[in-house]
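Open question from group meeting: does this chain pack into something compact, or does most of it stay loose? Before anyone orders reagents, we agreed to write out a predicted structure and look at it together. Recording both the input and the output here so the notebook holds the full record.
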Amino acid sequence: MQIREIMSRDVVLASPRQTLSEVAQITAERDIGFLPVGDHDRIVGMVTDRDIVVRGLAAGKGADAKVGEVMTEDVKYCFEDEEVDHVVENMGANQVRRLPVMSREKRLIGVVTLADAALEHDPVLVGEAFLRVVEPGGEHCQSTAA
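Structure tokens returned:
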């Protein structure tokens, strides 16, 4: 099974120039926890609700701070024609719960989450990946104790 078969195609792209307040409203309205961040024709980052709180508000930034100040710039992604098993294993190894999905021309076409894989594919494989995602520390840890 390929990623294109389980991904969500309804993707909203944030701008690095949007405010934390604007992006927080989008995530609340759409009931989502993250947005890819794009600048013109490129994905330049990812912003999560946790980024808004930890790197934004908890760090003393106000609601008018820009997304570019709190986003994660190291964007992990997958391609639409990759096998779900391979992508899920990579998500576990990289400790990420969701990925932007790109065409081979590197155009954003969707988003895939571990939940998508669990619902549509192999819940055991996803469970193993999730255990790796929730291990303390790792590259995407936001605490200073990592």
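Observations to bring back to the group:
The first helix runs from residue 20 to 30.
Residues 3-133 form a domain with the CBS-domain fold (CATH 3.10.580.10).
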